């Protein structure tokens, strides 16, 4: 199953922080981030992006378990 990354579009306020923290994984689609390529950055960077999201809009799971 591996890593699943999800952006809750309703919570995203478009700060773009995630697109810098995990470059290539997240891209902006207008005012909302979306997942472009889950393999584009190391897991640590993806987790840092999730922790750094000001609205907690990013959820990361591994094998179905929240990280
Ligand atoms: S860091 Fe969070 S609020 Fe900012 S663009 Fe990414 S998902 Fe949206």
* Number of structurally distinct domains: 1
**Terminal Cα separation, in Å?**
14 Å
Query: Averaging pLDDT over every residue, what do you get?
Result: 97
β-strand amount: 25-35%
CATH topology: Alpha-Beta Plaits
Q: Secondary-structure element sequence?
A: EHEEHEE
The description of the largest β-sheet is: 3 strands, antiparallel
Rounded radius of gyration (Å): 11 Å
Number of strands: 5
User: Are any ligands bound, and if so which?
Assistant: iron/sulfur cluster
CATH architecture field: 2-Layer Sandwich
Q: Treating each run of at least 4 consecutive H or I residues as one helix, how many helices?
A: 2
- The CATH class, by name, is Alpha Beta
Based on secondary structure, the structural category is: alpha+beta
* Low confidence ranges: none
Shape: globular
Q: Order of strands side by side in the largest beta sheet?
A: 1-4-5
Fraction of residues in helix? 10-25%
Structural notes for this entry:
The protein has 67 residues and is of the alpha+beta class. It has one domain (3-66): Alpha-Beta Plaits (2-Layer Sandwich), CATH 3.30.70.20. Helices cover 22% and strands 30% of the residues. It contains 2 helices and 5 strands; from the N terminus they run βαββαββ. The chain has helices spanning 17-21, 43-52; strands spanning 3-7, 26-29, 32-35, 58-62, 65-66. It has a 3-stranded antiparallel sheet with strand order 1-4-5, covered by helices on one side. It has a two-stranded antiparallel sheet with strand order 2-3. A hairpin with a 2-residue loop joins strand 2 (26-29) and strand 3. Bound molecules: iron/sulfur cluster.
